[in-house]
Amino acid sequence: MxxxxxxxxxxxxxxxxxxxxxxxxxxEKKGDLLDPEVIQLSQFLDHLLSEYDRIKK
Length: 57
Fold this sequence. Notes:
0% strand
């Protein structure tokens, strides 16, 4: 159970960091959601969210 909580907390921390970074990057790119860097970071965030969902189940 402790490993479960530790893994969940680690992924949650990564999700928050990625969300913050993505928001900053979007501002830096003046809202260009099709910028390759924005797309790459968005896909990474999607991966983290999928990982969170997998751990949660």
